[in-house]
Each structure stands twice: as structure tokens, then as C-alpha cells.
Amino acid sequence: MSLRENERIQKIEDSKQYVVRSKQKKNKLPTAYCLLLTTYFLVLASCGSGGGSSGGTSTTPDSSTVTVSGAVQFEDRTFNSTGFTGTQNKAVRFADIEIINSSDSSVIASASTDINGNYSVTLSPPSSTVYVRCLTSTSVGFGKGTKAYNIEVVNGSSSVYSVVSDAFSAASSGTYSKNLTASLVSGAGGPFNILDALTDGTEFVVAKNGSFTSSKVKAIWYDGNTDGTYYSTATNGLHFLGKSADNDCYDDMVILHEFGHWVSNNFSKDNSPGGTHTITGHYDIRLAWSEGWATFFGSSVRSYAGYSSPEYYIDTTGGSGNGNLLFFYEIKTPSYSSFATGSDNELSVSSVLWNIFLSAGFSGVWDVAKNYLPSAAEVSLEDFWDGWFNRGHSSTLNPSSIFSARSIEYASDSYESDNNSSQAKAVIVGTSYHHTYYPSGDEDWISFSATSGTTYTIETLSLTNGADTHLFLYNTDGTTLITSNVNDYPYTDDRSLTDKSSLITWTATATGTYYVRSKAYSDSGAISAYGSYNIRVQ
Amino acid sequence: MVFKMPFSKNRISKVISIIFSLLFLLLIASKPIPPIEVIIGFSKQPIVPGIAIVNLKVIPLVEHSNIDIQIELPEKLRLITGTKKWNGILEVDKTETFQYQIYIPDSKTYELKAVIILKMITGETVRREETLEINPVAKKNEYKKNHIKEGKDRGVIEFKGE
Fold first, then answer.
1. Which residue, A128, A491, B50, B86, is most buried by CB atoms nearer than 10 A?
2. How far does the CA of residue B50 sit from the closest CA of chain A (Å)?
3. Are the C-beta atoms of A432 and A504 separated by less than 8 Å?
4. Portion 435-474 of A in contact with B at CB < 8 A
5. ipTM of the complex as predicted
6. Residues of B in contact with A226 (CB under 8 A)
7. DSSP conformation class of A330
8. How many Å apart are CA B13 and CA B82, to the nearest integer?
């Protein structure tokens, strides 16, 4: 092949690179580049050259081609509930491979690694020295339609990480072997581990959903990053800590937890108000759902990928050497079990989902998440429960016992039916009575004997499972409203800004039997339809 | 999404409600944190040989019956002020700072470890270990080239891979 022909092939190769990258960005090929691409294939056909990438499989070279092949690995850190336990080399799967011209840093050819980390690129013998580069991205496979997803791990300036070979001359036809390893000590292992964990995650989604989305899975990590580990809906980006006291680049469960948020936002729906959250805390049921789902999802991915003890969430400090555990918890038989109760605790939510998964598999959970939750006004475990029945999965598994094991009472209380004044249950002043709002729209009525001139406190207490109570006091006829806590200054129906229980203080003007109606807050913006609470008159 | 807000009939309240709604549309989902937060660090970068001031910040996030705090020093380091072992109850959600003055004899690398065990009122315990590296060895990232810009849109960080 003449030098001119070489140059022509080189130009076409360069054009091809540009086309592939443009497609990733805009998903749209300018006409000019379409023409170039067409020309490229015509030229290849006429030259009989291998000339391009092989997507990880070998192409038989002819006498005028160069084949560069090898395997790419990264140094992985193994871990269990004690922290890190060692290291092992692991294949870098489906990552972008580039052959770089050493003199001008241009990309001559590209391919991607296969599931075993192997790659093979066939090209015309380049005149200058070249080197091989493996990137923390999967754009080549995505661009060519061989992989359904596009992952990218970048630093704070959106630069992608890579490992590279030494430069070598490939002027003579033949096969050149170049193996690459992203080592722990070099600092390259971390971003490749993030790519690996996200590859596990995306492979899982593709397996369970049948397809992925065109949205890029973008992870931002760099050594020294103190910005925090979080998922942002604003950027659809995953952010991971890289500080010395807490580096998450090897914390697979932390990575997959955040990816769980990504999946929720891109395939389902998430209404979490966000913010910090401890695993023992009780919060807004939307936050508990969001976080509980994210951990459950991470465990599901690791279960599917065949890792041991997937039911453990493990977070390390990222420090060198074994150990370095920051903290861990289990979701099957949940750690801190006395706190892991209710639909307002994330560990409780994770545990419910995990035990449903163990009994009925992932497909029902995924069906509800994907096909039911997006229609919910405010997504929480309540909606998952409703969706499970609505989508017909109760014939596979009635999850009542799994929910009740975590003190989640999506069931009628023992005082039903008590839905109007004629059905009101008489209560003893000074005694608490446990109620649930179930099903949606349920009302609980009580009656009590009051003495003229006596002041009574009517209140709800011990609210759990997202209960948001609303009280109304009726006269002895059971229909005339005396007062309610709706307009109690300054918090509508709530006792305070952080306490959704209700309180009415009232002095009887006549002796008789009075009625109290209790219902879940249901105005616009209500978060929960269900919930558990105690009611007391004293 | 509309959030319940106080003064719901007030126009200002409605405006605030809308702003809140818009803010919450942008979710920031952070990772789970344990029931006790621990942060250890220098008050300021120590000069060696000399005295370093180390701050251990402890934030219990759950009701507890006891917290044990112990610091473990390498043999050559000397605790000048501060208590090696402490136990008691701390206010939930409030940061408590324990301060230590430690003599550092030379520029060798040492590790100061703090072990914190929180016992919840239910009897369950959470153990945290935090390590502070004194005179840490500088990290050597084996960059072949650092942050090469390729065109206007892409940068690549290259590490030696062979």
C-alpha cells in the first residue's frame, strides 16, 4: 500500500472516530459525515483492508495489516463485612480501546474489550509509533449498537480516565500483543472499578428490562473529591467521594446504591426530598422509599452478578490495606432491627423489597417500579404495595407477612367498621387506642362521654408508617362540627412543623356523648394515604 | 409537586411553596450514613517535630445509652493533653469535639486511631474506627500524561498500564 493510500485510510479512520463520538453526543449524524462513513466502507471494500475496529473479536489479518490485541484488567479490591480482604485482577469489560498516534495524539482506530477484557484492533500499518489506550467509557460499543448502554467515568473536569501501553512501532505487518492493567497503586484501579460496578448494574437492567435507555450513565470521581457521594437529578450524574477519610471508588455497594437512584429516576419515579439520612432514622416515606430501593437495587445487582453476601451494604474508608471498614449493615434480617421498622425507615424498606425478591424474584418488583410507580402522585412504599396488587403479583406472593415483620400495617385495624358517627367506637377517657388508615380514604370514628365545664385533650400519638392525622370534633348529634385542628395556628392539621400528629383542646359546654372523626390528611400535596397511630381523649 | 406549608392561605406562603416544590424537583440523594458520625483531623497542619492539635468530632444521630471513645497512639507519639478513654452520653444531632495535643517526634509516618462504640438504647452497638495519618507519604500517581485535552470536548487522563 502506498504512502498516499495510507494517508487516505488514516483520514477516513479519523473521520470515523469523529462520527462515532458525534453520535454519542447528539445521536444524530450530520449528512456530510454519513457520506464520509459510506465512503469509508466503500474504500474498505475496494482496498480489502481490515482497516477498523473489531469490537473485541479477532479479524484475520492479511499481509498488509497490523493487528493489535491483548487483554485489559484492573486491580480489584475484594471485601466483606470486615472491610477489604485483598486484591485480585479482574477483566475490564466492554471498555473503549483506542490506538493512538504518538506523534499527534490522534485516534487511529478504536474497538472495545469483550466480556473477558480482550480486544483486537486491525488497521493498516501506521508510519509513526502508536500506543494502546483503554478508557473508562463504553462509547464505542454503544455507538456501534453492540452494547445497549453508555457508561463514562470522569474526573471533576469531565476528563475520562485511561490506562495506556508504551509507544511502539507497528510499521511492519503482523500481530502486536499489548496487555494493560489499571493497578491500585497507580490510581487507575479506582475509576476502572467504578466502571466495573456500573457495568454490573447496567447489565442487570438490560437482563431484567430487555433494554436500556439512551441516557449516558456518567460517574464523577477523582482523588481528593470532597463534594460527597450522591446522585443528582439535575445532572443525572453520579458523584463519588475521593477524600482520604472516605474514598468510595472501591465501594461497590455504595456505587450501586447511587446507581439505584439513577435507575429509579430513569426507569421509574422518585419523589424523595433528598438530604442526609441515617439507616436508623425515620423520615419522610418518600425518602425512605428512595433510599431503601437504592440499597435493595444494589444488592439485587450483586446477587445477579454472583457475588457472595449481596444482602450486605458495605462502606469502607477506602484506605490502603485490608480492613478499613466504615460501616456495614444487612438487609435480609436487618441490622439494627428495632429501628428497621415502618415505611419511613430505609433499612425497613430495603428489607421488605429484598425478602419479596427472595420469595418471588425480581420481575414483579421491577414491573411495579417501572409500570406502576410512575403514575403515583408521591412515590413511597405505599404505592409499591398498591402496585403489587394492582399489577396482579399477589397471586405469586402475598407480601403481608413480609410487611408486618417490619411493623408495616397496611391492613384494617381491629375497630373496623367505624367509618361514621353511627359506627363510632366508645372510648374510655385516658386510654389510647391503636388505629390504622386502611384502605385509602378510611376514617376512624370514636365517641366519648364529656362533662359540662371539663376541658378535654383529643390527640393522636405515636404516628408511624407515614401517618398524617387530621381530627374533627362533632356535637352530640354526630353531624354538627364543633372544631377541628385544620386551622390551628400555624400548622394546618399538624401539631408542629416536624410533628404530623393532631391536637384539639376543648371545653365541653354541655354533658353528653361527643364524636371524633379521624382521617388521613388528604388535601393537595398529601404524601401518605395510609399510616398507623394511637388516639386518646383525656 | 406541591408541599404543605404553613399559612397556606397567604400569598407569600404560596410563593414559598412553589419555590420549595421547584427545589425538591432536583433530588440530591446522598449515601446512607451510620448512626454516629465521626470526623478526625488536625486543628492545623502540624510542624514536626512538635505538637499537633487533633480534633475528634463526634455526632450521635440516634438515642443511645453510652458512647465509648478511645484513641490509640503509636509508641513514639506522646499524648500531652486530652483523655485517651472517655465514655458517656452525648446530645443527639449535636457535634461534640474532643481535642488532643500530641507530640510528634519526627517526620516518619504514623497512624492515630480513634475507636468509637455507640450503644443504642435497644442494646445494639455501632463501632466506628477512624484513622488519622500523620506525615502521610505523598501519593505517586503514575500518570503518563496528565489531562490531555483532545479537541474542545474531551480530555483524557492517562495512566501507565503496562
1. A491
2. 23
3. no
4. none
5. 0.81
6. none
7. E
8. 50
